[in-house]
Amino acid sequence: MGNRRLEALIEPRRIARLDDVLSRRTRNLTLLLEDLYDPHNASACLRSAEAFGLQDIYVVEAENRFTPNQRVVQGAQQWLDLFRFEDTGSCLNALRARGYRIYASDLAATCSLESLDFTQPTALAFGAEHSGASSALLRGADATFRIPMRGFSQSFNVSVAVALCLYHAITERTRLLGPAGDLSPGEREVLRDRWLEVALKRGETIARTLRRGRDTV
């Protein structure tokens, strides 16, 4: 009954869009972001993750609080599940308990991004700006990888690296497994209920903003 009441308050085209996104959502690919300190990078990583259909993001805050810039993230975090950890070890344990294979980005790695298997549950891990992945993350990962580069630049900005890796991972998953998402019917139902509430709140916020704009004209 709750679903029907909410749906009656939301435009049908908006509900169709929500269902389309939900049908392609994945929890078998996730991100681990370790100690990012730049709010713009944190925001860009979340936007890329949401845009490529990820649902869960794992964040380590051993040294730095993960604080996305609200103007940059543009509401992407409302559609995601964010899991916060105070240390890298506990985050790795949580991922491993959920069956993820963990690959950490490392400039010194000999394994290339293209060689990774994305048909299994995979967590792509990225360390802090400048310093990169911590020794705890590199030791605890199942493997390390690098993004092939052909120029003089030594590295990508972390948010750029995340976007590039997610694009490749999703492309490979789609090629090998198809475009459909991997959430169970129960997961989709729970997430759909939450997203309907988010969509309704966003619609009300936009309406209030438009009304204020008319009042000032």
What is the CATH homologous superfamily assignment of the largest domain?
SPOUT methyltransferase, trefoil knot domain
Helix content: 40-55%
Second rung of CATH, namely the architecture of the largest domain: 3-Layer(aba) Sandwich
User: Termini separation (Å)?
Assistant: 41 Å
Could you please describe the fold and organization of this structure?
The chain has about 220 residues and is α/β, with parallel strands linked by helices. It folds into two domains: about 1-25 and about 185-215; about 25-180, Alpha/beta knot (3-Layer(aba) Sandwich), CATH 3.40.1280. The chain is built from eight helices and six strands; from the N terminus they run ααβαβαβαββαβαα. It has helices at about 1-10, 10-25, 40-50, 70-75, 90-95, 135-140, 160-175, 185-215, and strands at about 30-35, 55-60, 80-85, 100-105, 120-125, 145. Strands 3-2-1-5-4-6 form a six-stranded parallel beta sheet, sandwiched between helices. Strand 2 (about 55-60), helix 4 and strand 3 (about 80-85) form a beta-alpha-beta unit.
